[in-house]
Amino acid sequence: MSDAAQHPARTSTPDPVxxxxxPRPTDGADLATRVRAALAEELxxxxxxxxxxxxxAVLDGADIVSxxxxxxxxxxxxxxxxxAGAAGSERxxxxxxxxEPGTLRRLRVDAHRLxxxxxPVDVTAELEGLRFDWVEGSDGRVGVLxxxxxxxxxxSGHARVAVxxxxxxxxxxxxLSVLLQQQGITLxxxxxxxxxxxxxxxxxxxxxxxxxxxxxxxxxxxxxxxxVDENMVLAVRDVQLGSGNPLVAALLGTIKGRVEAATxxxxxxxxxxxxxxxxxxxxxxxxxxxVVSARLA
Length: 297
Known about the structure:
Radius of gyration: 23 Å
Strand content: over 45%
Number of strands: 17
């Protein structure tokens, strides 16, 4: 283990994740127990069923050979992390007295299914080559500090997230109802249709019924197409807004320019990633479920 003063400085790093009292864990069972406690603290009491989650880890010196986390059946309520508990709301920013580099050789996360804000989500993700530092603070606590991937130390892996399309629409309806209610508008109906147009493209249609006061009621329609090309650039095209109500249609016309400006800017997904993370493929599959999958080179 080397002194913190001998460890090279990093320009931009996240906060370390606390894992209990020093020294660092030296076996997988101890690490699994600490990870479970860290998840509970971070979620601040918003998670139900976390005690039933399966967490297994294997250590080899400072390296974590494998970490397998299965969150099947866990239910996470809304709200900010740590909201329900003062401990979870505090960031750990220690004065680091000792530091030791390590590598998480393989991380696997499964949830078949996890309920997040009333929406069942199916998750499979596996990553390899995640570097980190074991850090010990002057307060006697120990944790891990993620190290950003680089060209010399790339990360590989894959991920798949699936949600029921009907459940996604129901969640969207609830969130939109709250937002509109703040403006004095009541959402009386919402129909969302997402149709696959290939492995990385889909067409979106939204039909909403709204009401304001006793006299104004209208339907609003919106359509758009979404695609990701071979260079991993996300594009939103053909955005159309309309309504059969002349007053609402005129209001939509006033925001048309802002909508077109916002959707005309393509998003380079690969450009947003660190140097050591290369997005090789993204797929969007639409049926009874909306499935997004990604593969890292």
